[in-house]
């Protein structure tokens, strides 16, 4: 199915506002929104999926028209609160159409963080009282029309409807291409960070290509990656995981390597972390102004910096860098001082086409990391 065909059908039932968080399964859909959808829809890439549901609620209150909220199924957790406590028919009864990319569908091969989420995707919709249909590459325009007619019937009852999208549903048409203007390549920046931190600290990395590149660069530099906890799921929570470790053992140095889209998703963590100001933690934000791992769609905060926000929140030291030399100098300063610091690294959208994925399971990564952590603690105690 062409994404443009789907969007035209959505437009035909009166939807003119679209909001969400990009997803790789929905890549052609997101491309179509960014290319041609701008003429037909008001389109917003929000901080997280719950925010998109909130926007949809407000738009409905103002116009009486349901909105479309798109998301990866991993984002269902973020919409449960606004769905249950605002949109539900027993509360305000606000209709909206969800388009959900189905990662980890049972019987399909996918990454470990999607396996359980894939199993419970439809069950979550059912328990939330959201009727749904599943579409795939074989869904016809006639069938799509019938699905959207069912959606409209739910809207008339002040309810929501979901279209669950299997992998390969949307055919590739024209790809949305965008450049952020930065020149430092992320993988090279991560190599510099590893060279300066790996033997001195434990690393918590965010989901997506950041963890994948760290995995390969660490293996190339050190022959292992046991000091890196790769947060392959839970987008936006890496910094709080890192703080949980930092507060548990103030004698260990913790480096969190975050992404700009992940930081934006749960930006309240910046205020909390600044208030705690863990002197043994360095927060590094790799900023390419896009959700690059799922298709290089600009974030809703693209072109802005997080360093200013971190400083306003109360981070003690803040660095914003664009070159290798600036990054090396910032790392040296941040690791030498005993003060909570943020280093924001502005990077391009470039990534290797042959970039691999971790060979171990998430559980194996956890086990190796905790073993390394425990051995370090024993050595420090004996020393």
Give a quick precis of the structure.
The chain has helices at 3-12, 27-40, 49-63, 76-87, 112-127, 141-156, 186-197, 209-222, 238-248, 260-265, 268-276, 307-313, 324-336, 362-382, and strands at residues 17-20, 42-45, 67-72, 96-101, 131-135, 161-165, 202-205, 228-230, 254-259, 281-287, 290-291, 297-298, 317-321, 341-346. The protein is of the alpha/beta class and 383 residues long.
Can you tell me about this structure?
With 383 residues, this protein is α/β, with parallel strands linked by helices. It has two domains: 3-165, Thiamin diphosphate (ThDP)-binding fold, Pyr/PP domains (Rossmann fold, 3-Layer(aba) Sandwich), CATH 3.40.50.970; 186-382, 3-Layer(aba) Sandwich (Rossmann fold), CATH 3.40.50.970. The protein contains 14 helices and 14 strands. The chain has helices spanning 3-12, 27-40, 49-63, 76-87, 112-127, 141-156, 186-197, 209-222, 238-248, 260-265, 268-276, 307-313, 324-336, 362-382, and strands spanning 17-20, 42-45, 67-72, 96-101, 131-135, 161-165, 202-205, 228-230, 254-259, 281-287, 290-291, 297-298, 317-321, 341-346. The strands form three sheets. A six-stranded parallel β-sheet has the order 2-1-3-4-6-5, sandwiched between helices. A six-stranded parallel β-sheet has the order 8-7-9-10-14-13, sandwiched between helices. A two-stranded antiparallel sheet has the order 11-12. Helix 2 (27-40) links the parallel strand 1 and strand 2. The longest helix is centred in the last third of the chain and has 21 residues, at 362-382. It is elongated and about 60 Å long. The termini are far apart.
